[in-house]
Amino acid sequence: TVSVLYWCSHPLQTPPLPNMTVRIVPKKTRDDVYRFLFTEGVICCKKDRLTKWEGRLDGRKFSAPVHHVWVLLRSMKSRNLVKEQFAWRHFYWFLNDNGVAFLRKYLHLAETVVPETHKKTQREVE
Q1: Cβ neighbours of residue 122 closer than 8 Å, sequence gap 6 or more
Q2: What is the pLDDT of residue 81?
Q3: What's this model's pTM, rounded to 2 decimal places?
């Protein structure tokens, strides 16, 4: 509290930089990331806090700060909804069956809708 009071009383000092690990993620960003994860079944994100993560759904391009994506998917990982893999400075999160059920409920989707990675190809059917 002493340093905060000192900073407030000193007009020539600049305020401290905002913390990059803010855990509050806007609802629009959360919905976009969740929708992308459900549609594709996997998210890849570079380990670089200064970049933005970009996704494309239905021809609409959107972006989100990388640390927002990290916070959302690490939360999902702690609840066993995704599997995390890290390789070559990139995070990969794969949606599992529990995650599919959670996102179906969150996004209000029918039971017949599945992610791209869970769809059976023509070769698997034959």
Answers
A1: none
A2: 94
A3: 0.75
CA gap 116, 4 in Å, rounded: 50
Q: How far apart, in whole angstroms, are the C-alpha atoms of residue 99 and residue 34?
A: 10
d(CA 126, CA 116): 19
Closest CA to 103 of 31, 54, 55: 31
For residues 8, 12, 15, 17, the Cα torsion angle rounded to the nearest 10 degrees is: -150
Which residues touch 70 (CB under 8 Å, ≥6 apart)? 45, 91
- Phi first, then psi: what are they for 88, rounded to 5°? 50, 50
Per the listing, tokens 């409920």 go with: 105
Q: What is the mean pLDDT of the chain?
A: 81
